[in-house]
Amino acid sequence: MSDWLGFALSLSAFLASHIIPRIGGMRDKLIQKLGRRLYFSLYGALSLVLFAWLIVQVSEAPRLEIWPQQAWMRWLPNLAMPLAFVLIFCGLGLRNAHTLGGTQKSQFTSVDPGIAAVSRHPLLMALLIWAATHFVVNGDLAHVLMFGSFASFSLIAMWAFDKKAAREMGDHAEAFFAKTAWLSLTPLLQKTWLHRNLRDLAPRCVLGLLCWASLLPLHEAIIGVWPFPL
What we know:
Blueprint: H1 5-19, H2 26-34, H3 36-60, H4 75-91, H5 122-137, H6 141-169, H7 173-179, H8 191-215, H9 219-223
Helix pairs in contact: 1-3, 2-3, 4-5, 4-8, 5-6
């Protein structure tokens, strides 16, 4: 049982760091006291440290295989991660206060929902894509627990943000949910939407793809696993 202690502690600490600040308005109080820039700098640094600790503990946890890895499984994250990186860059400064990474004061209008029409939770959707595709690839117990926790967290967080938005937006909530989605590619086929948003969308897509392409060769050096089928 002690062999699992490091993994259990690291996973619990990482998840707790994302849940506890939301309790009792602690996050808002800290932002007010420290300022948004300092708070998110410290919070981001803490998240990276805890995530690095978790990755180390996952690799050191006992390997108990639940299902074997097949070569085709490795194509799932390779095909999905470019979209995840694009969603990450699209989620920064999103015109939606009711999501992770959104602007403090929403400028959302049902006439021009912006990138929220593709995803009103792009950062959380990117997390879900990353976790779900890696969940399939890694069938040992430690990875199943880790990626399953991340996938569950992203789903619960999107649901919670939507519930909060419905309460706070009142009569405007119906239009908000009608014009946005968790993930929809339909707006990319609409000329009106593209005309309004392509200037903002294009550089974000390029940066996301460049970031993905630059990090992919480092996967083996950082994680210790070659990402493509052997």
